[in-house]
Amino acid sequence: MKIVLTNDDGIDAPGLQALAECLQGLGRIIIVAPAEPQSGVAHKVTTRSPIRVNRIQPKRFSVEGTPADCVRIALKKIASDADWLIAGINPGANLGSDVYQSGTVAAAREAAVLRCRAIAISQYVARGHEVQWNVTRYHAEPLLKMLLRQPPPPGYFWNANLPHPLDDKSEVEYAFCNLDTNPHEYNYRIEENNYIYEGAIHERPRNPGDDVDVCFGGKIAITRIALATQNLD
Predict the structure, then answer these.
(1) Residue 173 placed within a domain
(2) Quick one: average pLDDT of 109-131?
(3) Three-state SS for 148?
(4) How many domains would you assign to the chain?
(5) Cα–Cα distances in Å, from 44 out to 15, 56, 67, 113, 157?
């Protein structure tokens, strides 16, 4: 099995290293990730200028572009025979409406567009806490192994979010659930001509049983995301 790894936090991000460690022994791993952090760029792609690709090691490439650029280059040129593409592990949740702005999720979406099975995986970070990557890795590894045994149908990809805080003394339940459609509660503070974003992910509204509620309630939230909405009758 050949697995391409990418992210939106840059090739040196600890979450990408944790992801690679989770998948050791499961197949051939090829890393194709942005040279610099690209968080929040959504599905932006580069088509009007060259994209520099640096081969750091035989199976490790840094791309001076977006997460979606990384996926296109990986699946078109570097590893066109890849069985899976996995994006993450993102330090911060990608739940509900986050999936439309997240570079992590966009990478998995682009892979699905190219008919490659894909997973986006993120770690929610609770208020006042920091990510302990060894603990995240402990819980992400069995989760990824389970999802690799359940490939989504063509036109879909998996989006998984781990709760927080976590410990490595107990197992964490998971739930397959829907995306929450509630918008974030945020506003802008105005200082002269500057509009300054103000919002907090921790108080976001949620529907019972949807992904925000599941993850904030202490379970791993797994959603199957479609590339297209259902056709109208």
Answers:
(1) yes
(2) 96
(3) helix
(4) 1
(5) 21, 24, 8, 14, 18
